[in-house]
Amino acid sequence: MKKSQYIFGALALIAFPNWAQAQTQAKDTTLSRTVVVEQEYNPDIMDASKVNVLPQVAPPTVSKKAVEYDATLVPEGNIPASTMQAYTGTESQDKAQRGYARLGYGNYGNLDARANYLFILPNSDKLNLNFHMNGMDGKLKVPDFAEKWDARYYRTRVGMDYVHAFRKVDLNVAGNFGLSNFNFMPYSINNKQKFLSGDVHFGVKSTSEDLPFQFHAETNLMFYERQYDLSQKDAQEAMVRTKAGAIGSISEEQSVGVDLAMDNVFYKNNLFDDYTSVELNPYYLYQNDDWKIRLGAHVDFAFGFGKKFRVSPDVTAQYIFSDSYILYAQATGGRRTNDFRRLETVSPYGQSEIQLDATYEQLNAALGFKTSPVTGLWFNLYGGYQDLKNNLASAGVSSYIVDTDNQSYLQLFQRNMHNIYAGAEVSYSYKDILSFSASGVYRDWKVAKVEEDNGDWLLAYMPSFEANIHADIRPISSVLISLGYQHITREKIENERVDPVGNLYLGGSYEVFKGISIYARVNNLLNKDYQYYWGYPTEGTNFVGGVSFRF
After folding, report:
1. CA angle, 413 as apex, 410 and 414 as ends, to 5°?
2. Number of C-beta neighbours around residue 438 at 10 A
3. In whole angstroms, how far apart are CA 521 and each of 85, 87, 106, 392, 539?
4. CA 67 to mean position of chain CA atoms
């Protein structure tokens, strides 16, 4: 079986060059520049609101969102206390500058460094280079202990992205390198950890409307190493991730398409089994001035570890009336591979002695209503049901050691779960002066019972209510002020709850000279004690400040 997987993976590599997120605008506009600058930025952010929760409802969007540079909220407590990100503002200009750099530092040893440059080469070729490093090194109060934890966490990302535009096809080659270096808490079985990752992308994407159908294809050669785990050292995961798709029109309003995704995964220096997973996604599209309908299905199966055959829906529908009123519904699902990369996103401190199966979203059904009664104002109301098979959850496990030291670690578990949710969002923007958004979602979680274990303890860190409020104010063109609040309430277990997350933050930037700005941000203004991950504290009131450049 392993031999056939290697052959299958090699053929896939030859047959399916990659389509990566290429920018095809002929002119280097602000819009195209922003996407290029930020394409590797947001994926690096471990948004605490996503911890242990698969994506929420994805309602259709009609409005055109304002372009932003480095304006993404990073929770103060991430990994476990990430550096605060600069807020350099929303900008609009005829032609964007190609270079961007910033450097900041704060208390708790918070470091914030980033550099990016876009080269425009002959024949409309583009080469984008980027570097990003953030982290912290300081003492944090350990829950239930008198002493403080000398915590550190540094993350480094380096990447390049090259695009060559042929007459009807774009060729894309990209590569990324990542390093996460951090320590576990005192009394943990392991006192340090290092994640090393790298990937190379090859791909093509059709760009001409003259072709009978549009297509894309990509191959990703991916490598990941976890240096220290519970019973293994230098555990390695190698993957050939292949994606391809094609869509063609059968009339002015109707189209049919199919997407393919395949992972060939190989392990070394641990007891995990190699496997191959395949996902097929055929679909039908119908769109006119009032309706947009997608009818499809996810067909998933695997060979080797986790060999199962699963089917989930891929159905969405929206009806637009009176120009800005939208009724929408969805019934979606699909496979979420629990590879090493996703484990770091779910919890960088999580450990598992056994191989984890993929999480499968069997159903995410929702109904919603979205409207814009006046220019710049949007409301969105929705509710639904989500069913997850083998969802990831974390809990603290302690073991008694011979020398009487009580050592612990954060164990990852899997269990079938489901939740009913309801949420609302509102946003408002006025020219380039004011921007405001607020959102909240309530979830009622249930976990499947296994023998005599009701599993409720696995819900301790599942969010029962999440809220985010954020506002940007630009009193003059050179000044930007941002204020926000993030709140997460966890599920109640036996009449007790984990302390809620409550991060009140304030930030701002000032353009001293053209292209040169100073920025600062303060997180956890209320100096609250809370945890994004079991047993791992966040920083108290903390700040970072520095200088950013555009050139």
Report:
1. 160
2. 16
3. 7, 8, 9, 33, 14
4. 19
Q: Is the pTM of this model over 0.70?
A: yes
β-bridge partners, 197:
178, 224
Residue 309 parent element (H or E): strand 309-321
Nearest to 104 by CA among 129, 87, 90, 128: 87
Distance CA 10, CA 3 (A): 11
- Separation of alpha carbons 326 and 450, rounded Å: 42
- Contacts for 256 with CB less than 8 Å, ≥ 6 apart: 247, 248, 250, 282, 283, 284, 285
**What angle (nearest 5°) sits at the alpha carbon of residue 13, between those of residues 8 and 19?**
135
Strand partners, 136: 153
Distance of CA 63 to the CA centre of its chain: 22
| CA-based nearest residue to 372, from 313, 318, 324 | 324
Residue where the block lists tokens 């808490």: 185
Per-residue pLDDT of the chain (551 residues; tens, 9 = 90+): 444 444 444 444 434 434 333 333 344 443 344 333 333 333 333 333 333 334 444 444 444 443 333 433 333 333 333 333 333 444 444 467 899 999 999 999 999 999 999 999 887 799 999 999 999 999 998 877 777 889 999 999 999 999 999 989 999 999 999 999 999 887 787 789 999 999 999 999 999 988 999 999 999 999 999 999 887 899 999 999 999 999 999 999 999 999 999 999 999 999 899 999 999 999 999 999 999 999 999 999 999 898 889 999 999 999 999 888 999 999 999 999 999 999 999 899 988 888 999 999 999 999 999 999 998 999 999 999 999 999 999 877 765 444 445 677 888 999 999 999 999 999 999 988 999 999 999 999 999 998 888 889 999 999 999 999 999 999 999 999 999 999 999 999 988 888 999 999 999 999 999 999 999 999 999 999 899 988 888 999 999 999 999 99
CA 547 – CA 409 distance, rounded (Å) = 39
Q: Which residues of 448-541 form beta strands (DSSP E)?
A: 463-473, 479-490, 501-513, 516-523, 531-533, 536-537
The helix (run of H) or strand (run of E) holding residue 35 is helix 30-38
Q: Are the beta carbons of 68 and 41 closer than 8 angstroms?
A: no
In the structure encoding, which two tokens stand for residue 109, read together?
Answer: 């040893």
